Amino acid sequence: MSSGTFRARPSDGIAFVSGASSGIGRACVIELAQRGYSVAATARRADDLKALAATLPAQIFAYPGDVRDTAGTKALIAEIEKDQGPIALAFLNAGLSLHAEREGFDAALLAQTYAVNVQGTANCLDPLLAAMAQRHRGQIAVNASLAGYNGLPSSPIYGSSKAALIYMAEALALMYGEAGLTIQVVNHGFVRTAMTDQEKDFSQPYKIEPAAAAKIICDGFERGGFEIAFPWQLTALSKFIRVLPYAAKFKVMDYAVNRAKQR
């Protein structure tokens, strides 16, 4: 199988979604189940997972857990595969954004954010990559963000954690493609969640509902390719700014941020 060409189907095994109790994760669990998958959903909030599983009890299975726990996450994924069969598609979605970082840089906030966004993703990747590589097939998508493309003055911590995930996904796609694995990154704009609802200081253009985002993301799983990015307007702008010389980039970013605050 050539690099990165595997596209999972329900007949290949189950789907696994982290950060599944709300927002994008919850919507993707439901969308994947509606597309025929059995889905193992994990998050810390056991009651919310139980309610999610009750929406489609024959297809959605709740596995409470904390992705920050390295050993616990490895054991959880092993338990899921023992109970439900091989994981063919994994969406590593668990993430954290702390509004307090808007008030200034704080190393403690960085540690808290990275523990979920970066280390939590790595804790899932470790056992998933090992199991999928042994089977010579599997598909893993990492939920990053368009915020990872460029430095934002209001997001030195969240944005940099997402930049780390983009880099990690790129490297893993190169490392594991020949082993039959497809690695993808999801770079999205504004989606209506509890995380984005806390932002009151600037506008959020092209903001969409979680169900609409889930459809785009799951279409991307089926289509394949490395990046699933939306909306196209913010994606194009972010990629354009990304390649500018720094002097020009900083001027454009200052203008864009100030304009967003004025709206």
Question: How is this structure best described in words?
Answer:
The chain is α/β, with parallel strands linked by helices and 263 residues long. It has one domain (10-262): 3-Layer(aba) Sandwich (Rossmann fold). Helices cover 49% and strands 14% of the residues. The chain has ten helices and seven strands. The protein has helices at 23-34, 46-55, 70-84, 107-117, 119-135, 158-176, 194-197, 210-223, 232-242, 246-262, and strands at 14-18, 39-42, 60-62, 87-92, 138-143, 181-188, 227-230. Strands 3-2-1-4-5-6-7 form a seven-stranded parallel sheet, sandwiched between helices. Helix 1 links the parallel strand 1 and strand 2 (39-42). The chain starts with 13 loop residues before the first strand and ends with a helix.
The arrangement of helices and strands along the chain is EHEHEHEHHEHEHHEHH
Q: What value does the average pLDDT take?
A: 93
Report the radius of gyration as a whole number of Å.
18 Å
CATH class: Alpha Beta
Distance between the termini: 50 Å
- Estimated helix fraction: 40-55%
CATH architecture: 3-Layer(aba) Sandwich
What sort of overall outline do the alpha carbons produce when their principal axes are compared? globular
Please give the order of strands in the largest beta sheet.
Answer: 3-2-1-4-5-6-7
Poorly predicted runs: none
> What's the tally of helices?
10
CATH topology: Rossmann fold
In total, the number of domains comes to 1
Q: Strand percentage, roughly?
A: 5-15%
CATH superfamily: NAD(P)-binding Rossmann-like Domain
Largest sheet: 7 strands, parallel
**Structure summary, number of beta strands:** 7
| Structural class estimated from helices and strands | alpha/beta
